[in-house]
Amino acid sequence: MKIIVPVKRVIDYNVRPRVKPDGSGVDIANVKMSMNPFDEIAVEEAIQLKEKGAAEEVIAVSIGPAKAADTLRTALAMGADRAILIETDEVVEPLAVAKILQKIVEEEAPGLVILGKQAIDDDANQTGQMLAALTGRPQGTFASKVDIAGDSVTVTREVDGGSETVSLTLPAIVTADLRLNEPRYASLPNIMKAKKKPLETRSPADFGVDITPRLTTLKVVEPPVRQAGIKVGSVDELVAKLKEMGAVA
Question: Which residues of the chain have pLDDT under 70?
């Protein structure tokens, strides 16, 4: 069985994003980039499933600029077998990403597609669900545990107030939550080996997918600065302040 893992190049989660002076978007010039953390968890899960004998090949896929090849090399160094870069300098929205992934799924016929539940740059949380709808495959979102047995996969998923366990018939779509696993560090020997692993470069036009954005960003602004707190000396003073603010009647 093949497993496809889409990965996205995003601003490193340790970096504080900066808004461009004209408010047109987030400034990524000379900013450290890395693999989306949820996608890193998805890669780790796919590799673990391969190590358990549940899969024979792990394919990493990324849609983005030429520099996204570095993100794919990270996935290869972690243990993925080969990679596909869909190169474009345009902003690709979740629906277009899902349509491209649908074409790749049709070509590769994987038994499982594991995605991060969301990307930390837009927090859309849409691609996995859209891909499931486009391919007609069952989906297990927000996975905190994945077990494959025969032609089915059991997914424990995090929901409001607890967890839910679902059984999906393969082939299926799974999106990874934070508690699914702890991603491994790529060792230096594996980083060197990754340079020799196959990385295929294609374009959205190869799949006949129109990636023209359907949304227009009007303005991007910094979140408001949090106001300093106020110390009170007693419960009565606290209640008075809350009433003054209109927080209580």
Answer: none
pTM exceeds cut of 0.85: yes
Instruction: Answer whether CATH 3.50.50.60 is correct for domain 2-215.
Output: no
- SS3 readout for the chain: CEEEEECCEEECCCCCCEECCCCCCEECCCCCEEECHHHHHHHHHHHHHHHCCCCCEEEEEEEECCCHHHHHHHHHHHCCCEEEEEECCCCCCHHHHHHHHHHHHHHHCCCEEEEECCCCCCCCCCHHHHHHHHHCCCEEEEEEEEEEECCEEEEEEEECCEEEEEEEECCEEEEECHHHCCCCCCCHHHHHHHCCCCEEEECHHHHCCCCCCCCCCCCCCCCCCCCCCCCCCCHHHHHHHHHHHCCCC
Determine the pLDDT at residue 92.
94
Q: Where are the domains positioned within the chain?
A: 2-215
pLDDT digits (tens, 9 = 90+) for 2-34: 999 999 999 999 999 999 999 888 898 889 999
